[in-house]
Amino acid sequence: MGNQQFLADKIRTEEYLLNMGPQHPATHGVMRMVLKLDGEEIRDVEPVMGYIHRSIEKMCEHVSYKQAIHLTDRLDYLSSHMNNEAVALLVEKAAGIEVNDRIKVIRTIMAELTRLASHQLWWAVMGMDTGALTTFFYGFRDRELINDIFEETCGSRLTMNYSLIGGVRYDLHENFVKRVKDFIAHFKKKLPEYDNLLSNNVIFRKRTEGIGILTKEQVIDFGMNGPTARASGFACDIRKKLPYSAYDKVDFQEILATEGDAFARYKVRILEMWESMSIIEQLIDNIPEGEHRVKTKAVIKLPEGEFLQRVETARGDLGVYVISDGKKNPYRLKFRSPSFANMHGLNTMSVGTKIADLVVNFSTIDVVVPDIDR
Amino acid sequence: MGNTELKNIIGSWSENLTFVEEGSEFLIVEVPANELRDIAEKLKTNKDTAFDYLFSLTGVDYGTELGIVYHIESTTHNHMIVMKVKTEDRETPNFDTVTDIWAAAYFNESEAYDLFGIKFNGHKNLRRIFLDDDWKGWPLRKDYVDEFNMLTR
Fold this sequence. Notes:
Chain A is an alpha+beta fold. Chain A has helices at residues 2-10, 56-62, 65-72, 80-95, 101-129, 134-154, 176-199, 202-208, 216-221, 226-230, 238-241, 262-284, 338-342, 346-350, 355-365, 369-373; strands at 16-20, 32-38, 41-48, 163-164, 167-168, 305-312, 317-324, 332-336. In chain A, a hairpin with a 2-residue loop joins strand 2 and strand 3 (41-48). The longest helix of chain A has 29 residues, at 101-129. A five-stranded mixed beta sheet of chain B has the order 1-2-5-4-3. The model of chain B has no long low-confidence stretch (mean pLDDT 86). Chain B has helices spanning 3-11, 36-45, 105-116, and strands at 18-20, 27-30, 53-61, 66-73, 80-87, 94-96, 119-121.
C-alpha cells in the first residue's frame, strides 16, 4: 500500500485528447469525436461532423418540389419512406391536394415496415457494438424479408422513392398483403428470441443499465426527440401528437420509459417494434379501394408563405420547413433532422463514463450520419 | 393556447414587436435584434407561454436581409410560435446567442454560422460545423457563386 501511494505521488498524470473516427466501426458512418480523457474516463466529447455534408438544402433550392423528394432518401437512408412522405405531405398541405384513404393507409403501412426494418438493423448493430456478433445475423435475416417486400412493390430495397406528391408511385403488388402477413407471423416468433438472446443477457444488462442517463428536463432543453427522448419520459411521438396519414385511425401506444439510461433507450425501441406490428395488423386487412395516385398538375407551385410538416421517422421528429415565394422551387427549404438534434445530448450522456460506454451511448441514440450532415 | 391569446401576452412585453398571422399556420413574431435575448427569456420563463423546446433554428437569406427563424414549442401547453430576427448588415451580421436559454441552439447556431456567416455573440464554440475551416464564403446565401454547381441554370 505504501509503495502504491509512493508511485501515485511520483507519476505525473494529465488529461489528453483522443480522436475517435472518422473511420471507426462504432460511429456507424463517417464521423469523428474528439475525446478529452483522464485515463479511460471521458471528460468531454466534441463531435466533428460534416464528412458527408452534401448541402441537400441548397440543392433543393434549385429543383422542383417533385424532384426534391428524391433527395430526401439520402438524409436518413433507413427511414427513406418517412422522409419522402414528409415532403409529400407538406406539398399536399400547402397546395391543397387531397389524397384518398387508400394512399394514406399504404403510406402508413410502408412507414411502419420501414420503422421495423430500421429498428431491426439498429438492434443488429447494437449487439455488435457491445460485443455480441450473433445479433447482427439475426437482425439482418429478418430485415431481409422486409426489403424483399419493398422490392416487389417499390422496385427498390432501401431508398424507395415511393411516396410522391399526390400518392405513391406504384400500386401494391398482388402478393403484398400475403407477404406482409407472413412476415408479421414470422417476426412475432422471432422478436422474443431477440429478448432471450440480448435483452436478458447479464453482460449486456451490466453494459447498458445506469449508463448515459438523461433526465426529462435535459432532453427537452437539448431539443432531443424520437425513441431516445421517449426513454427519458418525454412524450414526443408525432404520430400521437400531430397525427398524419392514417395514424388517427389506428390504436397504438406511445412507448415511454422513465429511467433515461442506455437500457431504457434499448427497451423503447424493442417495444416500438411490437407497436409497429400491431399498427400494420390493424390496417393490412382493410386497405381501402381506390386510385394509388390522384391527378396533380404537371408543375406544382406553392402559394407564397411558409409551411412546416413534421413526421415521426425511425429516429424521431423530422421537420420540413419551406419558405415559398410562389415559384415551382422552394426559396428556402430546411430539414430539421432528428439525428442532428439528438447529438446535443451526447456530451452530457458521456461525461464521467468510460470509452466503452461511449460506444454503447452512441449506439442507443441510433444516429445515421448522413441525417446529421445532410 | 390560440394565436390571438399568445399575441396579446407577448405584445404586452415590448412595443417593438411585429406580428404576422397570414401565410403561416403559426403566429410569427418579429423581434428587433437588441431585444432578442430579452424576449426569448420571457418566452421560456413566462408560465402562460412556457416555450421550453427549441424545435428548429433556421438561417434565411431574404435578399437584402439575413435572418434567423426560431420554431419554439411548449411541451406543457403544446403550442408553437415562430420567432424571427433580421439584420441588414451583410458584412458582419451578428445576433446574441440563445444557447443558455435553449441548449438545443448549440449546434444549430454553428450551422447558421457555417452556411450563412451569421455570428452569435456569446456562443462558446462557434465554428465551421460542416464545411472545412478554410472554406471561402457562405454557401446558403443567395449571392454565393459556386462555379462547380452543375444544377444552376
